[in-house]
Amino acid sequence: MKRTLTALLAIVPLALAACGEKKETIAPASSHAQALTLMLDWFPNADHVGIYQALAEGDFSKAGLDVHVEVPANVADPLQLVAAGKVDAAVTYEPEVLLARNRGEPVVSVAALVQQPLTSIISIGSKKAIHSPSQLRGKTVGDAGIAYQHAYLDTILARAGVPAASVREVNVGADLVPALLSRRVAAILGGYWNYEAVQLALLGKKPVVIRMNDVGVPPYDELVIAVRTSMLARQPDLIRRFVQAVARGYESARADPAAAVRNLVHANAGLDPRLQLASVKATLPAFFPSSSTQPWGYQDPAQWNAYGQWMLSHHLISNPEAVADASTNEELAGQGL
């Protein structure tokens, strides 16, 4: 499925200044809108609320950009299409950026969309729920068959002193929630605390969530915006205007989540407004840095390096150069000037 939205041109300088950011004016270089194609990581949902808010409020057009949002036919597509020059930017995941760079794909992350891990261990029920990793012994855990999520489970079990052989791991693909609801598995690893857990709570299933970074997995940015390294080198002003317009969208969503969700749902028929609003409210803190001195989109270089070293130590990637310069804050407000 592919859906395209266009931000109409309006030549107005874009002034961006959030809390803790240096004020600056980002104005288009010419009177002609520059086209930019952004591919999402998945179907449009609460994680993307600021993007759709920026579209609805004209933040892209004020920056002289004609932004088209596309939905991938396959979740593996976004970074591959960025690397191949088929799309300009993609919403993706920090581990996927490092995996792509390890394959030699020329991509770099220019902003963190969600600045905390969302991936979680989720179980349900008041009696059968799993509250700690030690309770995974003898249980069946469903996941989506993603290599680094398998490594998450190994890391969590090792830290808890639970033998990996005592836990049965089942690849349920995209059917994480159905597998949990049917009791095919005792817990799932791969659902998000801000989405699947919220959905289960709205269904009255009493989800219990164990977050990755609380049980031994190093913190990372769950969602990021990636571009080709050559595009960043050639057109840093375009990327700068783009990421700062996205920042304005998320600032607006923080100020009025209900209005932002209405714009998200209006642009994407079929979304459940109740679920999207609950998810956005749950996610709001994760859309922004923990420090008010850092701009929206900030990526902690030390954190990226630590997570990259963890991937190297678990043989998920083999090239240390994949970690070096995998992310940059140069295009964020008040940075790189």
Output the keywords.
337 residues, alpha/beta, D-Maltodextrin-Binding Protein, domain 2, 2 domains, five-stranded mixed β-sheet, 12 helices, 12 strands, 35% helix, 18% strand, disordered N terminus
What does this structure look like?
The longest helix has 20 residues, at 236-255. This protein has two domains: 14-115 and 221-322, Periplasmic binding protein-like II (D-Maltodextrin-Binding Protein, domain 2, 3-Layer(aba) Sandwich); 119-214, 3-Layer(aba) Sandwich (D-Maltodextrin-Binding Protein, domain 2), CATH 3.40.190. With 337 residues, the chain is an alpha/beta fold. The protein contains twelve helices and twelve strands. Helix 5 links the parallel strand 8 and strand 9. The strands form three sheets. The protein has a five-stranded mixed β-sheet with strand order 4-3-5-12-6, with helices on both faces. A five-stranded mixed β-sheet has the order 9-8-10-7-11. It has a two-stranded antiparallel ribbon with strand order 1-2.
Short description, anyone?
The protein is built from 12 helices and 12 strands. The protein has helices at 49-57, 59-62, 77-83, 94-102, 147-160, 176-181, 196-202, 229-234, 236-255, 257-267, 273-283, 301-313, and strands at residues 14-16, 24-26, 34-39, 65-70, 89-92, 107-114, 119-123, 140-143, 168-171, 187-192, 208-211, 223-228. Helix 5 links the parallel strand 8 and strand 9 (168-171).
Count of extended strands? 12
* CATH class term of the largest domain: Alpha Beta
Distance between the termini: 39 Å
Helix content: 25-40%
Radius of gyration: 20 Å
The CATH H-level superfamily of the largest domain is Periplasmic binding protein-like II
Number of helices: 12
Backbone structural class: alpha/beta
Sketch the major β-sheet.
5 strands, mixed
Question: How many structural domains can be distinguished in the coordinates?
Answer: 2
* Average pLDDT score: 91
Strand neighbour order, sheet with most strands? 4-3-5-12-6
The CATH architecture assignment of the largest domain turns out to be 3-Layer(aba) Sandwich
Tell me the β content: 15-25%
Shape annotation: globular
List the quaternary state of the chains. Answer: single chain
The H/E string reads: EEEHHEHEHEEEHEHEHEEHHHHH
